[in-house]
Amino acid sequence: MRFRRLSAIAVSAVAALTLAACGGGGESSSGGGAEPAAASDFPEGSTMARLAQQGSITIGTKFDQPGFGLQGLDGKPAGFDVEIAKYVASKLGISEDNIEWVETPSQVREEVIEQGRVDMVVATYTINDERKQRVTFAGPYYEAGQALMVRSDDTTVTGPDSLRAAGTRVCSVAGSTPSQEILNYVDESQLTLFDVYSKCADALRTNQVDAVTTDNVILLGFVADSDGAFKLAGDTFTKEPYGIGIKKGDVAFCEFINQALQEAQSSGAYAEAWESTAGQIAEVTTPSLPELEPCA
Ligand code: GLU
To answer: Ligand 1 pocket, 214 CB below 6 A?
Structure first.
């Protein structure tokens, strides 16, 4: 019900924006919680000016990860990543109705940024040196850690060190950091890679694999959705700081995003974003914004 009412408000916000645009004025009046911002608020030629001017943004995220980016019946994704992305968009004067969401599986994240098919990627995207060769990261806005998910009746998997000897069949996603890290613990023949984690969860359910590995908070989303069929095994064994990927070298946009993240933290929007999404399912206390990295 609440959702329906919000949709109705969203529709009128779009109408208001359309009218404002037709009026030819330079101001954008945006509904749905977005703050008024105009291209003239930003340095000429900047990504912020361009996006504010066009009044829309294209954002890459996940569509199958409960708590972070999960596509709803309305076709739009919901989750912590989505809320963070919406907040950044709002600081450009762009309301959520003017966001185009693009499903962005792990393996294509660098490529879609490089090709300019999205303006930013907010998709459980670990900041690391290899990726920094191709994209610039704002953030981090969260720190996860790699973990293992198994069927609830499993007693053999106790952590990554238990996998090789037991011949555990492990599933992960191509192009992800966990899929690389796990090769320190298993033979390649033990590892199955899909494009998205929901396929790993399905394979675990149907006994085609024995464990799924990725970030703890992603796995907790699948555990919560499994009706008791899955559990986490052992502790986290890496650090996965989540960044917002943008075109390499766009330092001004990166700094703008970092400022938005800091504002989200101080205004309480960050905690609210967590509590209304991942915080509903994950057994983790509400985080605070980690220390931001300098933009480069
Ligand atoms: N955070 C890890 C990564 O960026 C795993 C999650 C994912 O694949 O999105 O590779």
So the answer is: yes
pLDDT digits (tens, 9 = 90+) for 79-137: 999 999 999 999 999 999 999 999 999 999 999 999 999 999 999 999 999 999 999 99
Regarding the beta carbon of 177 and ligand 1, being less than 6 Å apart is answered yes
Average of pLDDT values for 204-231? 98
Residue 286 has a CB neighbour count (10 Å cut-off) of: 12
Ligand 1 pocket residue status of 125, Cβ below 6 Å: yes
122 φ/ψ angles, rounded to the nearest 5 degrees: -125, 95
Closest of 191, 192, 193, 211 to residue 201, by C-alpha = 211
Q: Say if CB 141 and CB 261 are below 8 A apart.
A: yes
**Ligand 1 centre from 179 Cα, in Å?**
9
The runs of H, that is alpha helices, within 93-210 are 109-114, 129-132, 163-166, 177-181, 197-205
Token pair for residue 153? Answer: 């009746």
Contact predicate 244/139, CB 8 Å: yes
CA 155 → CA 39, 164, 183, 246, 285, distances in Å?
A: 58, 15, 22, 42, 27
